[in-house]
């Protein structure tokens, strides 16, 4: 009963958030039943990997997870129903064999279910037609499968499949144990063996495109074109058996050597088109050249929009007869008469060229077209298009290749209505090879698009520039500091002269510009200025008298700087350039800041981040790096000592939301409600709906001021417990914020007066219509805020029998608050009352849904009140705690008080689940940092509430058996009273995801101090920490590539050090010593 009550309360609070996207209320602690295996490279989906019967977006819910739907890309083929994180992903989160499905049933409310013997899978669509289409396709696929079933296995199409090898492996990222099967040319992953027999898997890996590599003790990697999988076997011998079986599977898969033999019959195809290495086994199928493995790797780094790299052996399905015919007719020799017509001997590429030289040459050849042979019609767009339409009807493939990469529009109009494009014209003419060449270039960038529009990036005119000095260019400059300079941008060079006749000039290559910053008006004596920063760390300031001049110059320079992928996204911007970041290609990412939107180009994918909606923004005190966390992922921006980086830090901080600005400039939730308002509403909803006189009673004024200051400084980092601030303190903070925020919720006094005029209208229908118009004219953030606030007040009023806050009382309180006045106008409360009374009509909300939520609120809160002890208890909140493993279905909802200890939480969780520990079992509570892949055993007296609500950490609480405690206690008994430990360990300082340097250090743990020496203990101490100030975690980040799995991570302030032990015994000894010193020998309750 208590469990049901807690679930009711949790659902109630989730509903009161008024969020259409329910996933926001569940936070990062919500566990999925599926495994997310994201790609680091994405395939070109013009080529279908499998025959898909139907695909589209659906919402699904894991078993026993209530109304929490997750949006997934779902694909149905003849064997499986798979769902993915996005359409680009190759590896599914789940795959359901149609042979395990008994029936598909539509269940109303835009939903349908798949029924199997052991599971029911629920999906939801947006439209009834979409549901009917899915059900129809599934029923047909199920019918086809039933007609062909002759199996004893529910997962594989042929039930009595002979597996090459099977067993459990540990997947390192995400860190989870998976049941794995090698069958024919694929590797299948399952959550466990039982799910395999039930017909439900995670994903499959095509071994025809894979490479197996030994990774050291018990580990190995499986590399595919789209990501690298790291596995850990149970033993060294088991690992060897897996590697042998996987290599055998790869060898069996590589049975298609016919493509190589066919293409190598052309003599020029027996050498790499770039470096002349013999017998190339790769190709760029849009550039029409054969490549060696090293050059293919460089081509792949350019992105598929430039070069689509495919293997002659592995990508069997790509090599159609028409594509083979293209390469036979062209060959590397003919292709290079275009691509490499003008390569000087000094710039040619040799077989032994290093990676840097290889990248420079291939980029110049194919991206910049430096060595190409210009077509005679180059620069004449209409003539090029006409020539292409003529060429596709002939047999001249080289002419088509030349035209496509000299500016001809592949989608130009042919002038023939029945065959409007060159592709349709080629097919009509029976030129299948020409059609194939056009198809492969449909989604790629021509040379012209890569070079950008010359007219845009060429510019001349006068600008004002201050003379060079030691003063930073960011300091205010007077008019006397500026001199008029003739400036010129062309040919990839920005130059400036004393006048338009001068020959002596200064300047820079646009490729050397790493940052362009457009300053706010009035920063210098010239109203409009912009700054340029170069690779060498120099800064340049330019200004003009009018905004258009600076706008046109900054646009031209940005077009000369930016990668093509950012052209269409980045309009007028405040700041753009390159920054070092962990997630970027070769450690570099392109950033464009426009208003509150930060556009980031990483690995040919553009991410757009609304800085106001960041989940966290942190700066490292030690190295100055920034970490941005938003709903789409995490971005690590590394520090740079050059002057442009400080400007980036300042701009990103300013644009991430400020507490003293209007609502639209505040830190926001995903639903465009300021974080300050959202946090306050949520707290009052949880703890104050039944509080008599809520919002009429004033909290402690000093508490309100303190909490409001914290919100102003950084709202997203604010967290508190009920013991820190009373519910009245929080309610008062909300009122003061609404009263003091710049321009208010109603967007200024002029707009506020319009709302008061509406209240004078006598006809109710006319009043509501007027309110609706006023609401639609509010900015998005103001409109979302007013809706969230009104819904909250409606919930308060719905429980007015408990809290005495009727519509009238709420109007009296919030009228002057919303209108930011002294409260003398009687129409202000009336507006608030009418917003509450006509909430559904004004905000276009379904009355049935609103009534259902309000009734649920009343029932849950009344039930909670009736079962609550009469005596005053410590404030508590509902927390989700996992039992034994972190996965869907293992969560236990527990009321955690501010003073609840770890041992009390363990007892509570085990009681909830009916688990009776055996005498030899010892259960502990662990803090799990899933992202960091580490865990820490909490001391039995440690309070769990501060751990659960640790700001900035995605941590979970997990209750599980402690398998090490008996060994730890035995070791400490042997040590008697003198508990100490010393020895040589391999140590790595965890500075970033790329920290991989391990150094041997002599470590000493004695008394109350942990010391590290560079050599023996007699050498000077290199590092020293008080043991009780350290947090000691078991485990390490998988990206550290530790030499052994036995590791301890020490956390002190924002630093992390990883200690690598040689074996499990050594790991236990160090762990025991740390625990004993930190906890004064009290490890367990006697």
TrEMBL record:
GO molecular function: GTPase activator activity; phosphatidylinositol-3,4,5-trisphosphate binding; zinc ion binding
Ranges where the Arf-GAP domain occurs: 257-373
Keyword Ribonucleoprotein: no
GO BP, one annotated term: signal transduction
Keyword list, A-Z: GTPase activation, Metal-binding, Zinc, Zinc-finger
Keyword Endoplasmic reticulum tagged: no
Domain Rho-GAP, residue spans: 666-843
Record-linked InterPro entries: Arf-Rho-GAP_ANK-PH_domain, ARFGAP/RecO, ArfGAP_dom, ArfGAP_dom_sf, PH-like_dom_sf, PH_domain, Rho_GTPase_activation_prot, RhoGAP_dom
GO cellular component, one term: cytoplasm
Residue ranges constituting the PH domain according to the UniProt record: 51-143, 162-251, 456-562
A Pfam family per the record: RhoGAP
Name recorded for this polypeptide: Arf-GAP with Rho-GAP domain
Species, as recorded: Triplophysa rosa (Cave loach)
């Amino acid at each position: 009963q208590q469990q049901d009550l807690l679930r009711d309360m949790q659902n109630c609070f989730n509903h009161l958030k008024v969020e259409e996207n329910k996933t926001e209320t569940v936070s990062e602690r919500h566990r999925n039943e599926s495994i997310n295996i994201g790609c680091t490279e994405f395939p070109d989906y013009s080529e279908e990997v499998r025959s898909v019967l139907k695909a589209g977006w659906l919402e699904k819910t894991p078993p026993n997870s209530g109304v929490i739907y997750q949006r997934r890309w779902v694909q149905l083929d003849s064997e499986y129903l798979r769902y993915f994180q996005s359409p680009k992903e190759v590896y599914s989160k789940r795959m359901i064999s149609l042979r395990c499905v008994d029936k598909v049933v539509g269940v109303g409310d835009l939903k349908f279910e798949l029924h199997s013997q052991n599971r029911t899978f629920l999906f939801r669509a947006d439209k009834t037609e979409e549901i009917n289409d899915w059900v129809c396709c599934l029923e047909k696929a199920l019918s086809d499968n039933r007609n062909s079933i002759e199996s004893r296995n529910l997962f594989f199409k042929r039930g009595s499949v002979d597996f090459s090898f099977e067993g459990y492996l540990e997947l390192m990222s995400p860190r989870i144990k998976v049941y794995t099967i090698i069958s024919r040319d694929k590797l299948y992953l399952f959550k466990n063996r039982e799910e395999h027999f039930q017909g439900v898997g995670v994903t499959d890996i095509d071994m025809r495109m894979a490479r197996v590599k030994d990774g050291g003790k018990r580990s190995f990697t499986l590399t595919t074109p789209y990501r690298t999988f790291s596995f850990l076997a149970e033993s060294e011998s088991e690992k060897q058996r897996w590697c042998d079986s996987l290599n055998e599977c790869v060898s069996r898969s590589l049975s298609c050597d016919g493509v190589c033999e066919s293409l190598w019959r052309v003599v020029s195809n027996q050498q790499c088109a770039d470096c002349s290495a013999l017998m190339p086994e790769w190709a760029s199928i849009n550039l029409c050249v054969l490549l060696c493995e090293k050059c293919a790797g460089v081509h792949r780094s350019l992105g598929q929009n430039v070069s689509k790299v495919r293997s002659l052996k592995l990508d069997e399905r790509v090599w159609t007869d028409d594509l083979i015919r293209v390469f036979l007719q062209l060959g590397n020799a003919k292709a290079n008469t275009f691509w490499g017509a003008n390569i000087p001997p000094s710039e040619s590429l040799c077989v032994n060229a290093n990676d840097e030289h290889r990248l420079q040459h291939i980029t110049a050849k194919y991206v910049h077209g430096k060595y190409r042979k210009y077509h005679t019609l180059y620069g004449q767009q209409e003539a090029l298009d006409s020539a292409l339409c003529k060429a596709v009807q002939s047999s001249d493939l080289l002419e088509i290749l030349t035209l496509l990469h000299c500016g001809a529009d592949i989608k130009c109009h042919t002038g023939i209505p029945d065959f409007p494009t060159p592709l349709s014209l080629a097919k009509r003419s029976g030129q299948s090879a020409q059609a194939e060449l056009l198809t492969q270039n449909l989604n790629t960038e021509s040379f012209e698009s890569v070079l950008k529009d010359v007219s845009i990036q060429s510019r001349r005119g006068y600008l004002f520039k201050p003379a060079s000095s030691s003063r930073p260019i960011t300091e205010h400059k007077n008019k006397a500091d500026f001199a008029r300079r003739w400036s010129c941008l062309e040919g990839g060079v920005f130059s400036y002269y004393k006048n338009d006749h001068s020959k002596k000039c200064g300047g820079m290559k646009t490729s050397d510009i790493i940052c362009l910053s457009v300053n706010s008006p009035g920063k210098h004596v010239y109203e409009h200025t912009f700054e340029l920063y170069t690779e060498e760390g120099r800064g340049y300031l330019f200004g003009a008298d009018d905004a258009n001049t600076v706008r046109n110059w900054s646009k031209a320079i940005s077009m000369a700087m930016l990668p093509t992928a950012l052209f269409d996204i980045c309009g007028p911007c405040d700041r753009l350039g390159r920054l070092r970041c962990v997630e970027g290609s070769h450690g570099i990412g392109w950033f464009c800041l426009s208003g509150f939107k930060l556009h980031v180009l990483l690995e040919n994918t553009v991410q757009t981040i609304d800085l106001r909606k960041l989940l966290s923004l942190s700066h490292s005190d030690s190295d100055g790096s920034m970490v941005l966390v938003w709903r789409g992922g995490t971005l690590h921006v590394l520090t740079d000592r050059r002057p442009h980086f400080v400007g980036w830090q300042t701009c990103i901080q300013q644009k991430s939301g400020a507490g003293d600005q209007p609502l639209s400039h505040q830190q926001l939730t995903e639903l465009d409600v300021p974080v300050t308002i959202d946090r306050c509403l949520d707290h009052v909803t949880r703890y104050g709906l039944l509080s008599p006189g809520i919002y009429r009673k004033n909290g402690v004024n000093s508490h309100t001021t303190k909490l409001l200051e914290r919100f102003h400084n950084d709202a997203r980092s604010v967290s508190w417990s009920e013991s820190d601030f009373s519910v009245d303190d929080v309610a008062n903070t909300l009122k003061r914020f609404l009263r003091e925020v710049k321009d208010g919720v109603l967007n200024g006094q002029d707009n506020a007066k319009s709302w008061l005029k509406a209240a004078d209208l006598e006809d109710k229908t006319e009043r509501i219509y007027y309110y609706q118009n006023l609401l639609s004219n509010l900015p998005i953030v103001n409109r979302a805020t007013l809706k969230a606030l009104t819904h909250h007040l409606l919930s308060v009023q719905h429980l007015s029998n408990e809290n005495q806050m009727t519509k009238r009382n709420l109007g009296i309180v919030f009228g002057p608050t919303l209108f930011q006045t002294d409260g003398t106008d009687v129409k202000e409360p009336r507006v608030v009352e009418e917003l509450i009374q006509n909430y559904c009509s004004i905000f276009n909300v379904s009355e049935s849904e609103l009534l259902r939520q309000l009734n649920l609120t009343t029932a849950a809160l009344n039930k909670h009140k009736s079962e609550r002890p009469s005596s005053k208890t410590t404030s508590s909140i509902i927390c989700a705690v996992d039992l034994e493993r972190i996965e869907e279905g293992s969560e236990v909802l527990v009321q955690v008080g501010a003073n609840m200890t770890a041992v009390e939480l363990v007892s509570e969780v085990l009681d909830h689940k009916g688990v009776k520990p055996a005498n030899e079992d010892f259960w502990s509570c662990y803090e799990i940092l899933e992202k960091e892949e580490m865990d820490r055993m909490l001391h039995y007296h440690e309070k769990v509430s501060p751990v659960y609500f640790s700001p900035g950490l995605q941590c979970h609480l997990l209750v599980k058996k402690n398998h090490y405690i008996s060994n730890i206690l035995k070791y400490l008994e042997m040590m008697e009273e003198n508990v100490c430990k010393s020895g040589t360990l391999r140590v790595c300082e965890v500075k970033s995801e790329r920290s991989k340097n391990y150094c041997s250090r002599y470590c000493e743990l004695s008394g109350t101090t942990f010391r590290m020496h560079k050599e023996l203990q007699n050498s000077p101490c290199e590092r020293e920490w008080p043991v009780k100030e350290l947090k000691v975690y078991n485990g390490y980040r998988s990206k550290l590539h530790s030499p052994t799995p036995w590791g301890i991570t020490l956390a002190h302030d924002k630093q992390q050090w990883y200690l690598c032990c040689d074996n499990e015994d050594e790991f236990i000894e160090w762990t025991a010593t740390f625990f004993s010193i930190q906890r004064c020998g009290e490890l367990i309750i006697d």
